Structure prediction request, 255 residues.
Amino acid sequence: MTGPLAGRTVLVTRPAHQAAALAQAIRTAGGAAFEFPALAIETVPLDELAAPLAQLAGADIAIFISPNAAQFGMAAIRAGGALPAAARIFAVGPGTLRALAAQGLDDVAMPDGQDSEALLALPPLNEVAGKRVVIVRGVGGRALLADTLRARGALVDFLECYRRVRPQADAAPLLACWQTGGIDAVTVASAETLHNLAALLGAPGAPLLRHTPLFAPHEKIAEAARRFGIADVIATPGGDAGLVEGLINWFRDNQ
Prediction:
């Protein structure tokens, strides 16, 4: 295999249903992808969403936090509710925008950045006094977006349509590969994924994880990895293309 990642094997830790595109991008660049999901997504049953779906009917603004929010949120909305025709729709990040487009939503606003801070800088979200906002997300998550919108006078509700959980996985094949030098880089898309990966690897994997370059598509995730004790942490641009670009650049400069 030729390409800028030739001879490199990259650990892909995304949920199983979201790993294929990144793994293929790594292979297209000449590398190999070792898929080991360190995060799993469980949908919240529809009967638990009756109240938030009812609140959505009166929303002026709907904000989708992630591709999972777009996928599972729209599935719940179609099964048990509806997006008001006049509601303004916002997406956090290009992956979320693409996921909403796949659901048939094309009139969606997105900030240049890929986090809540960038979203909150958009002019329409600075003038929300008296407006009802529904944030579509997983169970839990950062409070910044809701807290800031409430401080600006908005009425904020949540449609929490999925849960992030640690998968049940056998790490023995991954450890065997890693212990023989078979993993050259790690990719993670959240601090939670990193912590799950460490727990699944256990004590035998701790030194391997600490001393393998780790790539994260956001500086906040990179900061969490540094605090965790990873020696080489590289913050990349967002999305699959950003991660692959970061991998290529790092290995080119660290032969």
Observations:
- The mean pLDDT is 94.
- The first strand starts at residue 9 and ends at 12.
- Residues 45 and 161 are 8 Å apart (CA to CA).
- The radius of gyration is 19 Å.
